[in-house]
Design brief:
- It is a single chain.
- The chain folds into three domains: about 30-130, GTPase HflX, N-terminal domain (Rossmann fold), CATH 3.40.50.11060; about 210-405, 3-Layer(aba) Sandwich (Rossmann fold), CATH 3.40.50.300; about 410-465, 2-Layer Sandwich (Ribosomal Protein S8, Chain: A, domain 1).
- Helix content is about 45%, strand content about 20%.
- The chain has helices at about 5, 45-55, 75-90, 105-110, 120-135, 135-160, 175-205, 225-230, 290-295, 300-305, 320-335, 350-370, 395-405, 420-430, 455-465, and strands spanning about 30-40, 55-65, 95, 120, 210-215, 265-275, 275-280, 310-315, 340-345, 385, 410-415, 435-440, 445-450.
- It has a six-stranded mixed beta sheet, with helices on both faces.
- Helix 2 (about 45-55) links the parallel strand 1 and strand 2 (about 55-65).
- It is elongated, with a radius of gyration of 26 Å.
- Mean pLDDT is about 85; it is low at about 1-25 and about 250-260.
- Bound molecules: guanosine-5'-diphosphate and magnesium ion (MG).
- Guanosine-5'-diphosphate binds near residues 217, 222 and 389.
Length: about 475
């Protein structure tokens, strides 16, 4: 795997096609009926409608039900029949189901609906959306793997249904199933190689003195807006950087798009936070409803969050308490674990006013209180979110302080005989951003170092090794 292949995974955010808002009145848009069921609260179809619209469907009706799950259709039989009539009357090409259907439920519902009506459950819809956003080889591979993992149990069901007359035909031995299993293995291998490359690149970036920061959170939480706000103004808006943290070639103005996924790749920019030089990685948002297996396919995002020196967990303060909690849980269950620190952030503070913010903090803390430490081992780190507004700048200084405090830091003071060797060591340390102060005292140079522990240690070693000029 060449470095170039991996580099495409961190793309220039400006080079992709302009995200297009699907036109609700588009006569060619596929007509879809939305269906949703929930055990408790009445189903809220806002998000699934937005996702359907983003995927290019015109939603022409909906059916909802409060009821426990029915094994056959998920909906109760009566509701399922109502859905069938509505789909027929509306001439719907698809039923979009707000939830995951088992393979059996998918087939049963498909049999009940008018011929040719596609059954698209939430995971399938999300995969369709991701398909539009796949913008690099790595993203394509991730998407392929997620799709194959989604399709495999459905294919097994289809094979089992075909074979129900013939007990000798088991899905396990079916060539189509074997083929998908083989493709899953090969996609996993390819992604392993890409992941190895990314790990090597992280090590290089750290050795060059950069702290690695990642933004994580639900789709639409405000991550990308915050990333641009925190980024150094290389040109206008904190343009993406290449492997060395230098401005990437071929950068242009960045489009801020109000749609679920601008891109499936991560985008990294330089950001100076406190006196630290950091690389800030903006990630694809998490989204409810992808099965765990599929979520794990989107490794680039999850990996950059897990391995960051500091992960900012962005939570939208303008969501109502139930949504805030749901999205927080979805994000945490995707992240699972982190190696570095987590700094929780309540975004869009400008939108809610001070009362609204107090409510959001309360809802957030209540959601964190309800967490099981086994589900989120970093529960304690999630307390006391920092309210910010990327729009009006509220809280950004507090956020910078919190991040700077969270970064791994070592300090050292070294004196070396002044001369070429000391100057070379000093310049090495300057390049990596770990020189806090320099004093020239006669024949010696006294240096205070502060920054990444590994880099400070290496700078100290070089300065100590500087031999006196002869
Ligand atoms: N009022 C307000 N809106 C924001 C703020 N940050 C982001 N938004 C809006 O929230 C939406 C999602 O933002 P985006 O950064 O794309 O979210 P992402 O999906 O997490 O990257 C966009 O419409 C933004 O304009 C903020 O600080 N205040
Ligand atoms: Mg974004």
């Amino acid at each position: 795997m060449s470095r170039d292949d991996d580099a495409t995974n961190e793309r220039d955010a400006s080079s992709g096609p302009e995200p297009s808002e699907p036109d609700a009145a588009d006569p060619d848009a596929a007509r879809a009926v939305v269906a949703a069921r929930s055990d408790g609260e009445p189903p809220d179809t806002t998000e699934i409608r937005e996702l359907a619209a983003a995927a290019g469907y015109a939603v022409v009706g909906e059916v909802t039900q409060r009821r426990r799950e029915d094994p056959t259709y998920d909906l109760g039989r009566g509701k399922a029949e109502e859905l069938m009539r509505l789909a027929a009357d509306a001439g719907a090409e698809a039923v979009i189901y707000d939830g995951g259907l088992s393979p059996g439920q998918t087939f049963s519902l498909g049999d009940l609906l008018p011929a040719g009506t596609a059954v698209i459950d939430r995971p399938r819809l999300v995969l369709e959306l991701f398909a539009d956003a796949a913008d690099s080889r790595a993203a394509d591979r991730q998407l392929e793997l997620a799709r194959l993992r989604y399709e495999l149990p459905r294919l097994r069901e289809a094979v089992a249904r075909d074979a129900s007359e013939d007990v000798r035909l088991q899905p396990e031995g079916d060539s189509r199933v074997l083929d998908v299993e083989k493709r899953i293995e090969s996609a996993e291998r390819a992604l392993d190689e890409i992941a190895d490359d990314r790990a090597a690149r992280r090590a290089e970036r750290r050795a060059a003195g950069f702290d690695l920061i990642a933004l994580a959170g639900y789709t639409n939480a405000g991550k990308s807006t915050l990333a641009r706000r925190l980024a150094d103004e290389v040109d206008e808006a904190g343009d993406p950087v290449d492997d060395n943290g230098d401005p990437a070639a071929d950068v242009g103005p960045l489009a801020v798009a109000d749609r679920p996924f601008e891109t499936l790749s991560t985008t990294t920019r330089r950001a100076t936070i406190g006196d630290r030089r950091t690389l800030l990685t903006d990630t694809v948002g998490f989204l409810d409803g992808l099965p765990h297996e599929s979520v794990r396919s989107f490794r680039a995002t999850i990996e950059s969050v897990r391995t960051a020196d500091c992960a900012l967990l962005v939570v939208d303060a303008s969501d109502d308490p139930a949504d805030l909690r749901r999205k927080l849980l979805a994000s945490l269950s995707a992240i699972e674990t982190t190696e570095g620190h987590v700094v929780p952030v309540l975004s869009k503070a400008d939108e809610v006013g001070s009362d609204g913010l107090a409510d959001a903090v309360e809802a957030y803390e209540a959601a964190v209180d309800g967490l099981d430490p086994r589900d989120a081992p970093f529960v304690d780190a999630l307390r006391s979110p920092i309210p910010v507004s990327a729009r009006d700048g509220t809280g950004l200084a507090d956020l910078a302080d919190a991040v700077a405090d969270a970064l791994p830091t070592a300090t050292a003071s070294v004196s070396a005989p002044n001369g070429g060797a000391a100057q070379a060591a000093l310049s090495w340390a300057y390049d990596r951003g770990v020189v806090a102060s320099v004093d020239y005292e006669g024949e010696t140079v006294a240096v205070d170092l502060a920054g990444r522990p590994d880099v400070v240690a290496e700078a100290e070693r070089r300065l100590n090794g500087a031999v006196p000029p002869s």
